[in-house]
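Review box. Two proteins, two foldings.
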Amino acid sequence: MTAAIISVTEKGAMQSKLLYEKIETKGFKCKRFCYSKYVYDSAESYESLSMLIKIIFNKYDILVFICACGIAVRTVSPMINSKTSDPAVIVMDEQFNYAIPILSGHLGGANRIAQIIADETGAKAVITTATDTGGKFSVDSFAKANKLYISDMKIAKAVSSAVLQNSKIGLVSDYDIENLPNELCRDLNRKIGICISDDTNKKPFSCTLNLVPQNIVLGIGCKKGKALEEIESFLFNFLEKNKIPLYKIGRIATIDLKSNEKGILELCKKYRIELFTYSTQELMTVKGNFTGSEFVKKVTGVDNVCERSAVLCSKGDIIVPKTAENGITCSAAQTNVSIDFAKEIL
């Protein structure tokens, strides 16, 4: 996940470096932004906080402000769009006493990320969402942790409301599950329930929240400089032809030579799909029968990028082999689905 660490004072700039060093080790890809008067080391400078947020708000998975909550709230408020697309926003004080998630606590993972930051810095995570403070099941967090697409946010809200009112929620699952929480039961007579299935038309309850496993990995390769629009058009044709809904895509994989390919990065950001990249050596270790290309091998050192990366990322099998058009290649692989109600985000 990508994280922007934003500070506004000299003390905040110093603390931002410490935070950067601590959470980089947890797998976050971080960049620091400091007010121009207090920039040092590898941080980027800014003159206007509001202009900075307009530029970076939709470019990062996480925004961590080191400042007063009021500053952060007023700055991000014009950019807020939807809980399904807004980044996680967390505020820390300059003494690192508290880590406070203020936006996208569940779907964006802010609550969980705040706890990780707190564990690393000695701060206290201040969680205010009702299901968390009450120690109850959160359908948003459960779906995020298990890579499940939420079909209807209004019904998800109704599920959360029922949980807070201590009503039992029904459950039907086409997949094996572990650690079923007390709030859920296998009773088909419940009015509100959750259905975990690939079939969004399956409605076992009068009010059914369909959760769909995002267990398809797309392996992608492309020539340098391919624009988002070209990749997007190719991808949509690929998915339509192979009857794969976009919401089933959980990850995109490619070679590390493409880790800064603008079109691929913009695609992943636009549709909130995780990008995984692998070295030539890693891809060459993948076993299987792949559609080789001497040209690709000459450029990248590996005979096939899209199929090998899809298999490596999914740890599963290819379900759609390599398709190529106008310098873009794509294949699809499928991961095994594991549903665990005790699984945590990250």
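Next protein.
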Amino acid sequence: MNLNELTIKQARPKLDSGEITARELTAACLNQIEKADPAIRSCLSVCAPEALREAEAADKRMKAGEKGGLLGIPYLCKDNIMAEGLLTTAASKMIENYRAPYDATVIKRLKKAGAILLGKTNLDEFAHGASTENSAYGPTKNPRDLSRVPGGSSGGSAAAVASDMCLFALGSDTGGSIRYPASFCGVFGLKPSYGRVSRFGLLSMTSSTDVIGPLAKTAYDAAAVLQVIAGSDKQDATTAPEAVENYLEKVSDVKDLNGLTVGWPKEYFLTELDARVAERIREAAKKLQAAGATLKEVSLPYTKYGIPVYYIITPSEISSNLARFDGIGWGLAKNDALNLQEFYKHSRGAGFGPEAKRRIMLGTYVLSAGYYDAYYKKAQAVRTLIIRDFAEAFKKVDLLLTPTAPHPAFKIGEHIDDPLAMYLEDIFVTGASLAGLPAISVPAGLVESAGGDPLPIGAQIIGPRLAEGLVLKAAKILE
């Protein structure tokens, strides 16, 4: 096995014992990036010299007797998360030359733990999309089949983990953007509860649902990363004050799920669901039952409103959050204007891509006088009903099992001219985001594809708020 193919759990004792060094592990990942990324295009930037220096510093810490955690573990980070001194482009021409003046809280915590940042990964521009085709720097390709999308918006991070360019990656999930690409690429993708991980230093998309989380090779690895990045933060007033669980303990010696009841939401198993996906989720349910869990059908009647609610609230918050990119305080400046109004139009027109413009226009319309009550206010009311659906379900069951995506990865370009079809891709992942609940996509096997290699399928496990430990425990059983 090449060093870059190791999991965090496999690498940890090798690093602690001195069998391998952090520099060797980092070099192996950098070599894999150099070898594989020209075809996959996961990375927007690679900081090799800095990474090797950080690796040498980690080796010194280990020689001095420090052990454990993520010390010496190389990772990649989605390029909408600030890392001091590095380009943070959000895959947009609007801020293509922006260098972050400070570290996001998650980056600061990973640095303190001794994790080694290799570079920044591709995404849909400002995280607007489900395929990583909306990047201003071109699409990322699925390492399982280069003719297909990796999912989005954290497609670069998911593809990097799936192709062993790093031992884990950070992504952000607003309405499925960690879980969806995890499903398409066959890796673990964890969206923590809203507020469990600080958003400080994340370029805001939808402030009421944005969450940073890990993409990893195993449930244990996802738990190891969450253990470091979770917790309250004075710089983010939305972080949860509750103490962080011992996630590693939850996944270390999982033998059964005796006493747990897993809900099977009937609204997630529609006739439109790909039959191959439905079969894999049924197999996942049997695994949970074999481990001692009880399966129970539940109803989430407001599920059908998840997509329309999400695509009213999200463009509205995007319109507000992207207003700061005006070419003066932030962003591309086009100096060919005769007045301020023209300057804004030229700068924002040249800086934003088609999907960002579409969402800005939708959100601005929804928030405009005369429409706010009819659309935004109504959507927030229905969101409350979706939250109540989950609350009622969790009175009867401990966890929910659903598909992550309605089908395997689709071809690059297949939906690019049909925005509505792309929005419908989020059908199974928006609910947990709107309710602020923890959810993980777990690899659930492969399905045959026409004229290509078998494609991964993801099973989604959703838990009550701040029940990441329980979610990870069930994910470990499916693993």
